[in-house]
Amino acid sequence: MARYSNGESVFSRLARLLEAFEDDSPVITVSELSKRTGLSLPTVSRMVSELVERGWLQRDADRRVWIGLRMWELVSRAAPTRDLVRTSVPFMTELSARIGQNVNLSVRQGSEAMFIETLSAPNAVQTVLRGPGSRLPLHASAAGLVLLAYGPPVVQEAVLAGPLPALSARTVTEPNALRALLSEIRRTGAAFCPGLIDPANAAISVPLRSSTREVVASLSAIVPNTDGARAMVPLLRTAGAQISRALAARNSPAWQPDSEEQQQKSEESRHNARTTRSLRSNTSLLALGRVATN
Questions:
Q1: In angstroms, rounded to a whole number, what is the distance separating the alpha carbons of residues 33 and 278?
Q2: pTM value?
């Protein structure tokens, strides 16, 4: 693979460029891309122009750039969670229509819950999720707690070993208390979390199982934090059971999160990117690229 004078490969630079597009700012300027990646402006401009020609990126007259349709097409065609989403969406749609609230599908990615499908309902409560691709810590979200409760012991112990940063006053940050909460989730088969992130909302989540009974995803809903919120739990359980039966019937390959080695590399990459960003700019935006100098 071709490499630059500093030893960095062409692919590494391409990965840094594409991973600079974040959930909270999917449309950014070429100058901002240069700051986020640490690559020179001429280098970024050249790479962006080539990617625009191939349809991987799109660019307007103000030099703002975003992910192109060709990239979306390629990712959608080979997404490892495609069968999971296709199987779940009909039941998610029915559940969302019945409760009138947002319904989400998530899988574990490292120490986070990654939301791979979100269905919005008219007049539903507001949530912190920005759509597919959003992430929340396993220990600080209802969906994540379910994935953690049924996850491999090595993952549980790694999360329990901390740190356990708080997203709100209701986040469980004490390891023994979190361990007890995970045990309760396994006992009841659901996570009911009133006010976990937003005091006005209650989050409910249940596990989804493959044909081997392995928990491969979680189904969750965000509802108003009222006296009637707990009454939604049986509806989530029913929908979860329906999806699990459908997954078993399809007998399609189960979604598998990264191996522990891949997760460690991913976490190291993110840590290095945050360190580089703090040294090279005054922005607080999070980039997911690896540290390299131009």
A1: 15
A2: 0.71
